[in-house]
TrEMBL record:
<dbReference type="Pfam" id="PF07972">
    <property type="entry name" value="Flavodoxin_NdrI"/>
</dbReference>
<dbReference type="GO" id="GO:0010181">
    <property type="term" value="F:FMN binding"/>
</dbReference>
<dbReference type="InterPro" id="IPR029039">
    <property type="entry name" value="Flavoprotein-like_sf"/>
</dbReference>
<dbReference type="InterPro" id="IPR004465">
    <property type="entry name" value="RNR_NrdI"/>
</dbReference>
<protein>
    <submittedName>
        <fullName>Protein involved in ribonucleotide reduction</fullName>
    </submittedName>
</protein>
Length: 121
């Protein structure tokens, strides 16, 4: 299972690097990349305009068929908005919300997400 992510401040990248899974970091330059294997997305919490490259990636070619789940990072101080990018992607694309973590996560967050990925197959 590939892990596709974007990271503006480096927090999401730090989290994803701890997963010890194959990753693709999305940028404006590669947002329309084609993938032909199952993947999850790890999304930071930002306004939709900032995270549109995640939707661009999902909507490219047949990528949506390989999209299996989403996790999200953010700041608990956001209150109800904590993890809203991941929640919105899960709702909009009908995939499971696998986990939400704060900042760059901790060992328990890593363990939880790895278990969820294993359950997905």
């Amino acid at each position: 299972m590939k892990v596709v992510f974007m990271s503006l401040t480096g927090q999401t990248r730090k989290f994803v690097n701890k997963l010890d899974l194959e990753t693709i970091e999305l940028t404006a330059e590669n947002a329309f990349r084609k993938i032909e294997e199952p993947f999850i997305i790890v999304a930071p919490t930002y306004d939709k305009e900032v995270t549109d490259i995640l939707a661009d990636f999902i909507e490219t070619d047949q990528n949506r068929a390989y999209f299996k789940g989403v996790a999200g990072g953010g700041n608990l101080n956001f209150g109800k908005l904590f993890g809203f990018t991941a929640k919105d992607l899960a709702r909009d694309y009908g995939v499971p919300l696998l986990h939400l973590f704060e900042f760059q996560g901790n060992e328990k967050d890593i363990q939880i997400l790895k278990e969820k990925v294993t359950e997905l197959g």
